[in-house]
Design goal:
By secondary structure, the protein is of the alpha+beta class. It folds into 2 domains: 73 residues; 154 residues, Alpha-Beta Plaits (2-Layer Sandwich). It has 7 helices and 7 strands; from the N terminus they run H-H-E-H-H-E-E-H-E-E-E-H-E-H. A 5-stranded mixed sheet has the order 2-3-1-6-7, sandwiched between helices. Strand 6, helix 6 and strand 7 form a beta-alpha-beta unit. The longest helix is centred in the first third of the chain and has 72 residues. The chain is rod-shaped and about 140 Å long. 26% of the residues are buried.
Length: 238
């Protein structure tokens, strides 16, 4: 009957409405979950970015500290110039370069004359001041491409790049004269200071150690011949 059909229709409408209500509720719940998930993902991403920035900052700080410590390890504590370790590294580099390109390079080994006498007469503080002043003069006088280091005690080394032993001798004489004419004072007292130098040019068949031994041999003869002079290895054989 028509009344039955109307009743069935009403029932169907109610069921459809209820079903739509359920679907709507589920969709609302899904949307809410999705929003929550997005928020959580955004929060997590922000935290990760923050951590990444923090790690990058820590890495940069650590790199800076390592660089600082390395610089300190290669510096002479008294004079502030390169030390023996820095020299050992640099001469290996220069030796490798010389082997490849064969451009001349000379090693100059220096010694402060009568340094023990300076210490004994004026005290160790005066001796330290002399070493610091000489180091300063070396840094001021050498060419930009050259390298200077305190080798130990009162001994210094200079690597003169692009210099034959003849060119190195001219540089060495200029340095020697500059130090001799400088006024080193301890209080009001003038401290007489001179230096001696031995020069060896890199040459075929010589190792790094042998080049140093040759320059040291020339230095020994410079001191034997009265100090305050510069000698090349060639001068010993002349």
């Amino acid at each position: 009957s028509s009344m039955q059909r109307v009743g069935d229709l009403e029932q169907l409408k109610m069921e459809v409405s209820e079903a739509l209500g359920q679907i709507s509720k589920h969709m609302e719940s899904y949307r809410f979950d999705e929003e929550r998930r997005h928020q959580e993902a955004d929060t997590r991403l922000a935290q990760l970015n923050e951590r990444l920035q923090s790690l990058e900052h820590e890495t940069a700080t650590l790199r800076g500290r390592i660089r600082e410590q390395r610089d300190q390890a290669l510096r002479d504590a008294l004079t502030g110039i390169n030390n023996r370790l820095a020299y050992d590294e640099r001469i290996e580099q220069e030796y490798g370069r010389w082997k490849r390109f064969r451009e001349p390079i000379s090693l100059l080994v220096w010694d402060v004359d009568h340094f023990k006498k300076i210490n004994d007469t004026f005290g160790h503080q005066a001796g330290d001041k002399v070493l610091m002043a000489i180091a300063k003069l070396f840094v001021a006088q050498i060419r930009e491409a050259d390298f200077v280091a305190r080798y130990g005690g009162e001994e210094f080394v200079v690597l003169a790049t692009g210099a034959t032993s003849a060119t190195a001798l001219i540089l060495a004489e200029k340095l020697r004269q500059k130090i001799e004419s400088s006024q080193f004072k301890h209080g009001d007292v003038l401290v007489p200071v001179t230096v001696s130098c031995g020069i060896a040019e890199f040459s075929e068949g010589l190792s790094v150690e042998e080049i140093f031994a040759e320059a040291d041999r020339a230095l020994y003869h410079a001191k034997q011949q009265g100090r305050n002079r510069c000698l090349r290895v060639e001068d010993l054989e002349a």
